[in-house]
Write a structure and sequence with these properties.
With 219 residues, the protein is an alpha/beta fold. It contains nine helices and five strands; from the N terminus they run βαβαβαβαβααααα. It has two domains: 124 residues, Rossmann fold; 61 residues, Arc Repressor Mutant, subunit A (Orthogonal Bundle), CATH 1.10.10. The chain has a five-stranded parallel β-sheet, with helices on both faces.
Length: 219
């Protein structure tokens, strides 16, 4: 079951944290507040769709520096910046580094809630894509080396007979490997299989291959 989304608020002003928690809670969202970036880092981030409402000016490192630190930790939680002292270069840097929104105080409550909705949808989508890639990787890793070899040749556009000639094996053997691989990958067609491999390659889970060399020990 998917856990309820969480909004993480980091601001060193207790009154701001309190008001933001009240606002976000009023629309039925779970909220956790922190008075510093370090306080957030000491807590394990929730395994649920989430976003970060972050003050630009924090004790120690700025919110912008913290944004880059999170990126360095491979944390892609969407960030919404809030500030009472923003400027254009600051907002440009934040957005360039992937922030969902940059709001200058005083801002309308609805503007923040809209930004939170967008950020949560973004994180939810990212998590769904990551789960799909993880599932595809498990399926791919369940294939034998020869089955992996065969499906790369299938998605390159080769016919069974061409694959058999390329691998130096019988066409019926290729058909068996292909059928088993398709079943394990849960692919309905060669096009479906090609899309799966493309997703794995795009996610860097597989190194893109332009072709396969004949096996030294054909089946």
């Amino acid at each position: 079951m998917t856990q309820a989304p969480v909004v993480l608020v980091v601001d060193d002003d207790p009154s701001v944290r309190s008001s933001l928690k009240f606002l976000v809670s009023s629309v039925g969202l779970r909220v956790e507040t922190f008075d510093s970036a370090d306080a957030l880092l000491q807590r394990k981030l929730p395994d649920a769709p989430s976003c970060l409402v972050l003050d630009v000016r924090l004790p120690g490192a700025s919110g912008l520096d913290f944004q880059r630190e999170l990126a360095g930790r491979n944390c892609r939680t969407p960030i919404i910046f809030i500030t009472g002292h923003g400027d254009i270069p600051m907002s440009v840097r934040a957005m360039k580094d992937g922030a969902v929104e940059f709001l200058t105080k005083p801002f309308r409550d609805q503007d923040l809630l809209n930004a939170i909705d967008i950020a949560l949808q973004k994180d939810r989508s990212t998590r769904e894509q990551e789960k799909e890639i993880t599932d595809l990787k498990k399926r791919f890793n369940s294939l034998t080396p020869r089955e992996q070899e065969v499906i790369f040749l299938v998605v390159s556009g080769m016919l069974n007979k061409q694959i058999a000639d390329h691998l130096g094996t019988a066409e019926n053997t290729v058909k068996v490997h292909r059928s088993r691989a398709m079943k394990k990958m849960q692919a309905q067609s060669a096009i479906d299989l090609a899309r799966m491999i493309e997703k794995l390659e795009s996610s860097s889970e597989l190194r893109p291959r332009e072709g396969q060399t004949p096996s030294e020990n054909p089946s």
